[in-house]
Amino acid sequence: MATQTTAQFDGIIMFRRNYRERDQLVKIFTRQFGKKMFYIRGARKRGFKLAAAILPFTKGVYVGLIREKGLCYLNAEKSLTQFDKINEDIGRNAYITYILNLIDSAFDDGLAIPIWFDMASAALSKINAGFDPQIIAHIFELQLLPTFGVQQEWQQCIVCHRDDLPLDYSESSGGVLCQNHWHLDPKRSHLDRRTIYYLQQLSSVRLQNVQSIHVHAETKAKLKAIIDMIYEDEVGLKLKSKHFIDTMPTWN
């Protein structure tokens, strides 16, 4: 028999969609219970008391009925944090949407993943504060690869484990090769040391500890190309939010 409990929990509003005439279904990423879908009765009515609490990307402390299976129900909010700069800027909004979509795709609903909740919370705060959203998205992309079943070795040569020689990325090898083993992959990526350095850092850094982000445009383009290739060839994930981001440079 499925269990249910009334609980207080930390949550991030992932998305919402209209349901029936006056209601909404709202997906909340909770720290304690993972991703859960909530049925919000009367959410589309004028003057709905929890309207601010279910705006996309809102972070809050909520009280609700949590069910092991099926829809959950939201009773109240204890505190809310809104991220105005994200809501006002289509670019920041797009990257947060993509990051939450990645998490949604990587993990089953109902699985408590507090580490990723804390990272998503940090992403909201830092992108709202003006940190480079592309680089923050790359942190999630790289660190989610093992969850998608794609293991990549970035820190040392995948053959001899040396890290004191120039390294280059080899897609066929599943990681970096030192220059002594570059001959094993004639199609290696020919990345410069700066790009390799950032791949190493972004794949292992704790986002909450990042104090600043300054990456040259040329390096950002190379990072994007490599990570896009891995997601295209190895993960096979095609998200509408990622396509939207990729089209943004063409708007001008």
Automatic annotation (TrEMBL):
Lineage start: Bacteria, Bacillati, Bacillota, Bacilli, Lactobacillales
Statement: the UniProt record of this protein carries the keyword DNA repair: yes
GO biological processes: DNA recombination; double-strand break repair
InterPro entries given in the database record: ARFGAP/RecO (IPR037278), DNA_rep/recomb_RecO_N (IPR022572), NA-bd_OB-fold (IPR012340), RecO (IPR003717), RecO_C (IPR042242)
An annotated GO cellular component: bacterial nucleoid
Role: Involved in DNA repair and RecF pathway recombination.
Source organism: Pediococcus damnosus
Protein name (record): DNA repair protein RecO
Similarity annotation: Belongs to the RecO family.
Keywords assigned by UniProt, alphabetized: DNA damage, DNA recombination, DNA repair
Keyword match DNA damage: yes
Limits of the DNA replication/recombination mediator RecO N-terminal domain: 7-76
